[in-house]
Specification:
- The N terminus is likely disordered.
- The chain is globular, with a radius of gyration of 30 Å.
- The chain is mostly beta strands.
- 9% of the residues lie in helices and 47% in strands.
- A hairpin with a 2-residue loop joins strand 38 and strand 39.
- The protein has three domains: 609 residues, TonB-dependent receptor, beta-barrel domain (Maltoporin, Chain A), CATH 2.40.170; 155 residues, no CATH class; 84 residues, no CATH class.
- It has a 22-stranded antiparallel barrel.
- It starts with a helix and ends with a strand.
Length: 901
């Protein structure tokens, strides 16, 4: 493995000099985070008393760090972690649609939001969005109720079940709160936009028999127009960046019968019949009608309680509700994209004298579109827990979550009505006509009557639900010479469902948008697990302790059958100052609802049949042999260039399989009390990864393989007419075809010390991505993502780090945090092109806090202190940069007031 030490040294020295880190690594028994958690169940183990430093590489974002961050959403806290990469929704994504507009997620290691398991108090959370979604929407969890966030960067399917391939994010809520706390926060950019405000009230009472904590919170952020940060879409033209815009013009771009391309009038009030040869000067700049930050409102209410029913039995409950309202500004829609518009030479609106096809016409007269979402998410947990004997604990709980949403878009064209306004046999120019005639050739020629007739607002509905029952038991089995053997076991029964009903016109392909089909599906799972912690050595030379950790989990899905996963680990405390840990685990991800049940449809897609003309091929070629063996008649020739192809979900999908291996070390040198170093190497291998493969690719790989041996030769991928040889079935639905491998190193430093009357903490997390290789299907070329920026999967800079310097004295405290993102090359750009790479970038954040009294705190912070601008990246069109990786807003401030009584 290539590991450039000088890059690491530069990253560490730069960050230590300036500060950094919102994530406090809890990786040593001596750290405060680890010792305070010893008595409870920690992320990565069901055995109470397990140490964070022993279960694997775990980072903790604690309450103090959360307060110092000034964050109003969980995504801000998690997406700064060096282990976060790739594609994940956040508020600056103008077009984040893969998991529902307005949602935010975390993507550990960059290998997919659906491969990171998100828990709340150790239990699953229902997926969120606007229906049939594939991961948790972090927007549903208000920051005000969070005590800490534990991030396990290791495969954990044996502990928690499916989807914990890259790791687990466990959000722990506040408990045992006595009194009340009011928090008010406001911030905006130094350009005076992007206002971000939040208010929260937390109340709690604690008595001898139990406690109750309740919270109410509301947060709201305003839009930032994209043109204020990126005036136009840029592209390289003759060696310089220029505004390039969209070829969906406001006048209309048309292909004439003689093969020439023309564009119609674009001048307000100009000659509606004027047209000229099309060129890029006619292109449309959509940035003024897009947002760099989309507005969002969140209102949440939650209650957490526990009550002792006796000396050894207790009741616990959780209730959480969040309403999210968000919207995204979008450019006016276009016609011609989803349904060709042919206008005859003798049509009264056609001034060219030739038949033409209107390729694109942006409906600028109708104004911008606005996508909107209104979602409600409920979560209810109720259970009993208790203990018996000296060391045994048990718990049983039911967990119900439900997310429902309504979403849609304004100013969508009804394509049937567009056609009617062009049909002179049904439309009329008479005032008040039921169907007015429309002139789409030239800006300004569409009348208000036509716009009222063709435009409408779509309304989609959908949701997700989750029902589960869990029962756990843990304790100490027996004592060995080196200590007690810890044991945990439990069961989980769970049903997940997702559904989505697009607007009926969208389903019918009448709306001027991508056609979408209804989705509705669910799956059931029954699971049982066991976990053991066995002390092997204690008090020996070079082995203060040596502990074996093991876990196994059997999962039985009604759709997939059984799947067994296990985890093996060693925790070796060589001396009081040095520890090593290693884990090997299997993990799996089940196909999500859209992948399984996504609306299946068929359409004629451009496809090349390799058996067309096969009998003219050399008799020794695989094409000749395989097409002959498959019964394709001699002299067969493909009719046309399209094949009826099935797309959408695939109920035949199976779970992805993964293997993870981590080796780490923890060093707390005696010469520097309070200092901890950590290092962890990780390696993740994923097989049977789900990937959509084009029909032409499947056919080519099959018929070029030896003896039709390729997996794509199965009847589930295509079939032929036994008489004519024509393809009568072809699928481009997702299949279990890909393989992925990810490896790298995580480094951490935590140093707590006193200097000059100040209490100081230095915290640094560094992540180095050595490789991320994806082979999309057997026989396909491997794609290397490490060190690359991709247009569809996000950024995979090899180096990322986050660190902080925290100083406190009396009522004053402050933190200086720094986020470092290393250089990355654009995978789609030619070397030497403008925007072929993004250089390394460092963001600085400053936060100061003053405790006026024990009850009253004031805080003031500035993010992106030096106003670093996002780099130009060729593969991205939204604001000319990767908005999931780089800051688009620039310098911004925030102020927070906290009052307790």
């Amino acid at each position: 493995m290539s590991f450039p030490r000088h890059h690491l040294a530069l990253a560490i020295s730069a960050l230590l000099a300036a500060g950094p880190a919102a994530a406090q690594s809890a990786s040593s028994d001596d750290t405060s985070a680890a010792t305070t958690l010893d008595a409870v169940t920690v992320t990565g183990s069901h055995i109470k008393g397990a140490q964070l430093s022993g279960v694997g590489p775990v980072s903790v974002v604690d309450a103090d760090t959360i307060a110092r961050s000034g964050a109003t959403s969980v995504e801000t806290l998690l997406q700064r972690l060096p282990a976060s990469a790739g594609f994940a929704g956040n508020q600056t994504n103008a077009y984040w649609t893969g998991n529902g507009y307005g949602t935010t997620q975390v993507n550990l290691r960059g290998i997919g939001i659906n491969r990171t398991l998100v828990l709340l108090n150790g239990r699953r959370i229902v997926n969120g969005g606007t229906g049939a979604n594939s991961s948790v929407d972090l927007n549903v969890i208000p920051v005000a109720i969070i005590e800490r966030i534990e991030v396990l960067k290791d495969g954990a399917s044996a502990i928690y079940g499916a989807d914990a391939v890259a790791g687990v994010v466990n959000i722990i809520t506040r408990r045992g709160f006595d009194g009340a706390e009011l928090g008010l926060r406001y911030g905006e950019t130094f350009e005076g936009d992007g206002a971000d405000s939040a208010a929260s009230l937390v109340w709690g009472t604690t008595g001898e028999r139990g406690s109750l904590t309740a919270s109410l919170s509301h947060s709201e952020s305003k839009a930032v127009n994209m043109a204020s940060r990126a005036p136009c879409g840029l592209g390289e033209v003759n060696g310089a960046l220029q505004c390039v815009g969209s070829s969906a013009t406001i006048g209309g771009r048309a292909l004439l019968a003689d093969g020439s391309m023309v564009n119609f009038n674009q001048v307000p009030g100009g000659d509606g019949d004027a047209y000229a040869p099309y060129s890029s000067i006619h292109n449309y700049n959509g940035n003024p009608m897009l947002n760099a930050v989309n507005p969002i409102k969140r209102t949440s209410f939650s209650v957490f309680g526990d009550l002792a029913l006796g000396d050894d039995v207790g009741l616990f409950t959780e209730l959480m509700f969040t309403n999210r309202r968000s919207n995204q500004l979008a450019t006016p829609g276009s016609v011609g994209q989803y349904r060709p518009i042919h206008i005859a030479a003798d049509h009264p609106t056609n001034p060219t004298g030739q038949d033409l096809t209107l390729v694109r016409r942006r409906l600028e007269e109708a104004g911008a579109r606005e996508f909107y979402q209104d979602t409600d998410t409920w979560r209810v947990v109720a259970g009993l827990d208790g203990r018996f004997g000296e060391t045994w604990h048990w718990s049983a709980a039911i967990n119900y979550g439900r997310n429902t949403g309504t979403d849609g878009s304004t100013n969508v064209a009804n394509l049937d009505r567009v056609a009617q306004t062009l049909d002179t046999g049904v439309c009329s120019n008479a005032p008040g006509a039921a169907i007015p005639c429309g002139d789409y050739l030239g800006y300004g020629d569409l009348t208000p009557a036509v716009l009222d007739y063709i435009m409408f607002t779509t309304r989609d509905t959908g949701g997700n639900s989750q029902r589960s029952f869990t029962a756990n038991l843990d304790g100490q089995l027996f004592e060995l010479p080196a200590g007690w053997v810890g044991f945990a076991t439990g069961i989980e029964l769970r049903t997940d469902r997702g559904w989505r009903d697009p607007d009926i016109l969208t389903q019918q392909g009448i709306a001027n948008s991508n056609a979408a089909q209804r989705i509705d599906g669910e799956y059931d799972v029954r699971e049982v697990f066991a976990e053991v912690s066995v002390p092997l050595l204690e008090g020996r030379a070079l082995a203060d302790t040596l502990t074996f950790n093991g876990a196994v989990r059997y999962s039985d899905y009604d759709l997939f059958g059984g799947d067994t996963n296990y985890k093996l680990g060693l925790d070796w405390q060589a001396t009081s100052a040095f520890k090593m840990r290693a884990t090997y685990a299997t993990a799996f991800r089940i196909p999500n609802i859209p992948e399984l049940f996504g609306g299946v449809s068929e359409g004629n897609l451009t496809t090349t049949d390799p058996c067309s003309g096969w009998s003219a091929q050399p008799t020794t070629s695989n094409i000749y042999r395989n097409c002959q063996a498959d019964g394709v008649p001699a002299g067969y020739t493909q009719l046309g260039n399209t094949v009826l192809t099935r797309t959408g979900g695939n109920i035949e999908l199976q779970p992805e399989d993964a293997k993870t291996f981590t080796v780490g070390a923890v060093w707390t040198p005696a010469f520097a009390p309070g200092l901890t170093f950590t290092a962890d190497w990780f390696d993740i291998r994923i097989e049977n990864a789900i990937q959509s493969v084009a029909g032409s690719t499947k056919l080519s790989l099959c018929y070029n393989s030896d003896g039709l041996s390729h997996p794509f030769c199965s009847a589930s991928n295509f079939t032929r007419n036994p008489v004519t040889g024509e393809l009568d079935f072809l699928s481009s639905q997702p299949v279990n075809a890909a393989s992925e491998r990810i490896s790298g190193i995580d480094l951490g430093l935590l140093y707590e010390f006193a200097a000059g009357g100040l209490d100081a903490t230095v915290n640094l997390d560094v992540s180095y991505l050595d490789r991320y290789d994806l082979t999309p299907f057997p026989g396909g070329s491997t794609i290397e993502y490490a060190g690359k920026i991709t247009g569809g999967r996000g950024s995979f800079a090899k180096w990322r780090s986050f660190g902080s310097l925290v100083l406190a004295q009396g009522p004053w405290s402050g933190s200086w945090s720094v986020q470092y993102i290393g250089r990355a090359d654009d995978i789609n750009a030619a070397p030497g092109d403008i925007g072929d790479h993004a250089g390394s970038l460092t963001y600085h954040n400053l936060q100061l806090q003053y405790a006026v009294s024990r009850a009253f705190d004031l805080a003031l912070g500035v993010d992106n202190l030096f106003d670093k601008q996002a780099p130009f990246i060729q593969s991205y069109t939204d604001a000319n940069t990767d908005t999931m990786t780089y800051d688009l807003l620039g310098r911004r401030w925030n102020a927070k007031l906290t009052y307790r009584w």
